[in-house]
Amino acid sequence: MYRTFKKLTVLDQIASSDKVRRQIVDTAANLYARKGFASTSIQEISEAAGVSLPVTYHYVKNKSEIMRLIMEDLLGAFRENLTRELEDIQDPEEKLAIALVIYHRILDREKEKVLLFYQKSASLDRASKTRIMQMEVDISRIFAGILEDGIEQGLFRKVDVDLMAYNIIIMAHMWVLKHWHFKNRLTLDQYIDNQVATVFHALESSH
To answer: CB–CB of 149/92 below 8 Å?
Structure first.
């Protein structure tokens, strides 16, 4: 019945929509990680976030939509940080190195959220799966654009740009997926340094 609510409460209207959305998303991610996707209800998320149930349904209609919002937050954080850091940089090599570092650091900061996608993606509805896959493609295109610039300028050798972009994405995800192993011998900075060196070695131009 809560799906019929159209207006936010007065107090929630005072709060910024971004803040309310962030409360819902962060709370949901924590509960999913702690209790599991299937065992967590929208009502429980609402109560733990301190947001009324009608307001929660104003932002999301089901748990799949919350997973989509989590993915959107990750992509948004990557884009925002990348835009800020690359604002005055033209060199593709420097751009790629910075993009690699930023992406690794965001995934490390949001490890629990990233793991949720690998663990629960099969539970999402078709629309949410499609949207999340598109956002992953959007991230790959950011890397692909930098790679194409580097190839055009003769700084990188010619490679399958789409494949290399996805290699970079999976390389970063591996820090999260296999963190139980790598944390015993590598810090995040050491892992990033090694992977950046691997990428640049693969792209090294013969000219």
So the answer is: yes
Residue whose token pair is 């900075």? 189
Domain residue limits, the chain: 2-61, 65-203
CA distance 81 to 79: 6
Produce one character per residue of 179-205: b if its CB has 16 or more CB atoms within 10 Å, e if not: beebeeeeebeebbeebbeebeeebee
> Per-residue pLDDT tens for 114-167?
887 777 676 677 877 787 788 888 889 989 999 999 999 999 999 999 999 999
- With b for 16 or more beta-carbon neighbours within 10 A and e for fewer, the 106-117 pattern comes to bbbebeebbbbb
Return the SS3 of 159: coil
Inter-residue contact 24 to 60 (CB < 8 Å): yes
Its CATH architecture, for the domain 2-61, is Orthogonal Bundle (1.10)
First to last CA, the chain: 66
Class of the CATH-defined domain 65-203: mainly alpha
Backbone angles phi, psi at 117, to 5 degrees: -65, -40
